[in-house]
Amino acid sequence: MAIKSVLLKPIGDAIGDAIAHTAHLNQLKSANPDLVIGVIVTERNRDIFAYSGLVDKLLEDKPSTYITQCNKWDLYLDFQPTYTTKSVILEKLLSPKYIVIFNKKDKKHYNIETVKNYNFACPQNDTTHISDYLNNTILSSYLDTQKAEYVLENQESIRFDVLWGGDKPRILLAPQGSTRQIPAKELAELLNQLAPDLLERAIFVLTNTVDSNIYFEELISYCSDKIKIKLSPKTSIQEYIQLASSADLIIGVDGGSIHIATALQKKVLAFYARNMQNFFRWQPRGNSHIPYKAILSNTESNSNNHTCDFPMDKAAEWVNGLFQNMENNIP
């Protein structure tokens, strides 16, 4: 089949979802630079796709879009996890030449047996990384598996230089996600174990999200007086990308901030619940040459929100080694 245009419907509109999909877009664009790529977006994820540099058309997720885009797309990649009455109707209005679906959870009236609107069903294993989904489809023979990595254009600017305060090691702390966080006491345990010479030179900035003022006060109450921590101002998505672009290391919990950092090819220390299905599917996928460390909680859990009880001694050892190598110019 001759494919000149591809429209992607994301698995969800979270920031992390959007970053993960840039791996698919990168594979497609690398295989055919002339391919026209479109993504159905919401206000929440629009900027991520815009700053990927991979999308030709950003289409608002509303019924009129599906009507105006009728018969205009060769291939529709439907990553939505379930069928709904609305999605079935909208895809009928869209009428692409071919539809590829992935994991669709069975519902009482809607499943892949009762809804036959697709051309290719490509269910994925529970442990398959989200970035690898296209490698298990009819498209796989045309794609480079090495291109399945997160992509985001670096937005570094001088606007956050005042916040960082000069030429010092810059460590961005992102311990709070939309549904999970690293306990402030545990994060302080990590920071307090960092090498004295690093603490003397480094500046830490805490990202500003919901209830970050409370988290900030709790964090500094547990930290040594030698640790210099600032609270970031509130940021838009674009501003947050600029802030992350200006950091040397991002330390954070499983979520959008970690995925953004990985896409920007930043050094990352990430904390995940010991839920292996979630970890295998959602651990960051970046450049293999960029230092990255994942720390899992000590206790297993069926919830990916169980982000506590971490071995912070191992985390501190990695950070100390990282900056020691940076000083010695060891990659």
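The record above closes out task 2.4. Task 2.5 opens with a second protein, given below.
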Amino acid sequence: MKSIIGKKLGMSQYFKEDGTVIPVTVVEIQPNVVVQVKTFDKDGYEAMQIGYGMRNKQTKAIKNHAKGLGSFANFKEFEGLKNGEKEAVVGGKFDASLFEAGEVVRVTGISKGKGFAGAVKRHGFHGMPASHGHKAVMRHVGSIGQRFPQHTLKGLRMAGRMGAVKTTTRGLKIVNIDLEKNTIAIKGAIPGNNGGTVIINSAK
């Protein structure tokens, strides 16, 4: 299992040698530094804590926790003491070279927030008929329950806040890796806004 944290820069195009154009999303791989290694003996489980992103102001708590490794904006914990073939060592770094072009990955991020949305947009409801006596009810939900048990059941699909949730897109292919700029070009779209944090995981 391989995992790395990056920042979504936006979509672009990649031109192959035969002239084929591939739509890609470019992800900048920020410095992924191992800040802490957790073991069975000390913590009861095996994991590695990664520090990523940079912040201008550094609190004493983060300064003490990072032990001079950097001024990190966030921390993320991954299971296991290996990232692919690389061992997790405090102070060790992971970059774009962790993956290879042509590799299939899954990308996790926070989807774009759509705000308050109705049932038609949020859940794909067909809506009411537009004629034969119907007035301004075309996009209404319709019945939300029966006379018994006299309350709305939990989990009913209704209007509400849409988006801004953790989402994973699977089966994405890495088209190109630029080690100089430390970027990965992934075929197709990935979750989140430009500038948002995403996690790239190997498919297996």
